[in-house]
């Protein structure tokens, strides 16, 4: 009798930038550490180039993957064709989407419908139109494919898995509140520290950009939309059918007059003229013995979701946050008046990729 064939799971990767590179090295270690199921890389692409064989031959999982991809002459397959390519391999397949692309997110129901599981940090799929969210999970349910996106909120922090466990075990989540942006955390911890005076607002924004904490155009952080996306994802998992990240109040910290300036650099140049507004906000909190922080909150009972500035006592865990850490508090029936708190690095390539890798392990445990 022939020996049973080695169990194999094919891996396809879209995106090989910051998070993608970190994930690749974690995948290499994982494949070496866990021989079964055998993890076979059959497709990898950036927006311009791809690496794959029409017969699904394995791509060597070694230190040369990135350079081989960079020098490849192959173009990425269109998403519809990629669904067919991966679906035709005959092996169980997991798609790892390390992009923040709306187009890729829109195609998730197609992949899942063909039995291809997905792990991703891509927020767009789970915070965009509620219809897409429903289509993703119903496609997964029908085909049995799995979809995990832990890193779409809080990078490697176990935020979504914790919320899922609370909900699935029948606890009643009453409120979720926290600092969901590493950028905003860093900015307010240095602008309005719990002790000492802190810097000028515009100077802190410049510093955050120089340190790589903000998007290339800091307005993409200061408009609050990134936090709104994360809250949308959490609210939906908590059972609120939030239509989109623009369906609830989101406070933007971009002065009206600077919303339409041409570039991020011009924005930073003109921002000092508006420092007085933020100084007054900080002073108003100080007069009450408090500090100001940029938070998101979900009140499940009243179905209210909001993002913006709030004042906190100096002893509050949200006030005492350090550096660019995230903090998420879950108030539930079981935990009573003391919330379950998750805190730690909420951004960075390695910790984000860790969330993706841990999702991959969850999928493997179920499909392999």
UniProtKB/TrEMBL annotation:
<dbReference type="InterPro" id="IPR001342">
    <property type="entry name" value="HDH_cat"/>
</dbReference>
<protein>
    <recommendedName>
        <fullName>Homoserine dehydrogenase</fullName>
        <ecNumber>1.1.1.3</ecNumber>
    </recommendedName>
</protein>
<feature type="binding site">
    <location>
        <begin position="15"/>
        <end position="20"/>
    </location>
    <ligand>
        <name>NADP(+)</name>
    </ligand>
</feature>
<dbReference type="InterPro" id="IPR022697">
    <property type="entry name" value="HDH_short"/>
</dbReference>
<dbReference type="Pfam" id="PF00742">
    <property type="entry name" value="Homoserine_dh"/>
</dbReference>
<keyword id="KW-0791">Threonine biosynthesis</keyword>
<dbReference type="InterPro" id="IPR036291">
    <property type="entry name" value="NAD(P)-bd_dom_sf"/>
</dbReference>
<dbReference type="Pfam" id="PF03447">
    <property type="entry name" value="NAD_binding_3"/>
</dbReference>
<dbReference type="GO" id="GO:0009088">
    <property type="term" value="P:threonine biosynthetic process"/>
</dbReference>
<keyword id="KW-0486">Methionine biosynthesis</keyword>
<feature type="binding site">
    <location>
        <position position="99"/>
    </location>
    <ligand>
        <name>NADPH</name>
    </ligand>
</feature>
<dbReference type="InterPro" id="IPR019811">
    <property type="entry name" value="HDH_CS"/>
</dbReference>
<keyword id="KW-0028">Amino-acid biosynthesis</keyword>
<dbReference type="InterPro" id="IPR005106">
    <property type="entry name" value="Asp/hSer_DH_NAD-bd"/>
</dbReference>
<dbReference type="GO" id="GO:0009090">
    <property type="term" value="P:homoserine biosynthetic process"/>
</dbReference>
<comment type="similarity">
    <text>Belongs to the homoserine dehydrogenase family.</text>
</comment>
<comment type="pathway">
    <text>Amino-acid biosynthesis; L-methionine biosynthesis via de novo pathway; L-homoserine from L-aspartate: step 3/3.</text>
</comment>
<feature type="domain" description="Homoserine dehydrogenase catalytic">
    <location>
        <begin position="158"/>
        <end position="361"/>
    </location>
</feature>
<feature type="binding site">
    <location>
        <position position="123"/>
    </location>
    <ligand>
        <name>NADPH</name>
    </ligand>
</feature>
<keyword id="KW-0521">NADP</keyword>
<feature type="active site" description="Proton donor">
    <location>
        <position position="230"/>
    </location>
</feature>
<keyword id="KW-0560">Oxidoreductase</keyword>
<dbReference type="GO" id="GO:0050661">
    <property type="term" value="F:NADP binding"/>
</dbReference>
<dbReference type="GO" id="GO:0009086">
    <property type="term" value="P:methionine biosynthetic process"/>
</dbReference>
<comment type="pathway">
    <text>Amino-acid biosynthesis; L-threonine biosynthesis; L-threonine from L-aspartate: step 3/5.</text>
</comment>
<feature type="domain" description="Aspartate/homoserine dehydrogenase NAD-binding">
    <location>
        <begin position="15"/>
        <end position="150"/>
    </location>
</feature>
<dbReference type="GO" id="GO:0004412">
    <property type="term" value="F:homoserine dehydrogenase activity"/>
</dbReference>
<feature type="binding site">
    <location>
        <position position="215"/>
    </location>
    <ligand>
        <name>L-homoserine</name>
    </ligand>
</feature>
<comment type="function">
    <text>Catalyzes the conversion of L-aspartate-beta-semialdehyde (L-Asa) to L-homoserine (L-Hse), the third step in the biosynthesis of amino acids that derive from aspartate (the aspartate family of amino acids), including methioinine and threonine, the latter of which is a precursor to isoleucine; production of homoserine leads to a branch-point in the pathway as it can either be O-phosphorylated for processing to threonine, or O-acylated for processing to methionine.</text>
</comment>
<dbReference type="InterPro" id="IPR011147">
    <property type="entry name" value="Bifunc_Aspkin/hSer_DH"/>
</dbReference>
């Amino acid at each position: 009798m022939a020996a049973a064939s080695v169990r194999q799971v094919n891996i396809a990767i879209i995106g090989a930038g910051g998070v993608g590179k970190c994930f690749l090295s974690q995948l290499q270690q994982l494949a070496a550490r866990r021989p079964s199921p055998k993890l076979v890389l059959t497709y990898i692409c950036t927006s311009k180039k791809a690496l794959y064989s029409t017969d699904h031959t394995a791509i060597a999982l070694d230190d040369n993957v990135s350079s081989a991809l960079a020098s490849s002459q192959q173009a990425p397959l269109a998403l519809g064709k990629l669904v067919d390519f991966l679906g035709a391999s005959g092996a169980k397949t997991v798609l790892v989407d390390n992009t923040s692309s709306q187009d890729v997110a829109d195609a998730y129901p197609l992949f899942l419908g063909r039995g291809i599981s997905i792990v991703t940090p891509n927020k767009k799929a789970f915070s965009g139109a509620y219809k897409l969210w429903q289509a993703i999970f119903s496609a997964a349910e029908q085909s049995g494919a799995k979809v995990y996106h832990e890193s779409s909120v809080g990078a490697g922090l176990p935020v979504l898995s914790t919320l899922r466990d609370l909900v699935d075990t029948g606890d009643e989540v009453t409120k979720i509140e926290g600092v969901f942006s590493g950028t905003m955390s860093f900015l307010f911890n240095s602008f309005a520290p719990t002790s000492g005076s802190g810097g000028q607002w515009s100077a802190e924004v410049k510093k955050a950009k120089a340190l790589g904490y903000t998007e290339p155009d800091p307005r993409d952080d200061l408009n609050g939309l990134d936090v709104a996306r994360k809250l949308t994802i959490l609210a939906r998992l908590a059972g609120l059918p939030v239509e989109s990240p623009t369906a609830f109040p989101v406070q933007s910290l971009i002065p009206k007059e600077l919303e339409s300036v041409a570039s991020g650099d011009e924005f930073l140049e003109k921002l000092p003229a508006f420092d007085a507004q933020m100084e007054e906000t900080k002073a108003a909190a100080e007069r009450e013995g408090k500090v100001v922080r940029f938070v998101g909150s979900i009140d499940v009972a009243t179905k209210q979701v909001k993002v913006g500035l709030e004042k906190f006592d100096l002893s509050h865990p949200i006030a005492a946050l350090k550096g660019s850490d995230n903090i998420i508090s879950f108030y539930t029936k079981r935990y009573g008046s003391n919330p379950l708190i998750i805190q730690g690095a909420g951004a960075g390539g390695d910790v984000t990729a860790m969330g993706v890798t841990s999702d991959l392990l969850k999928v493997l445990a179920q499909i392999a």
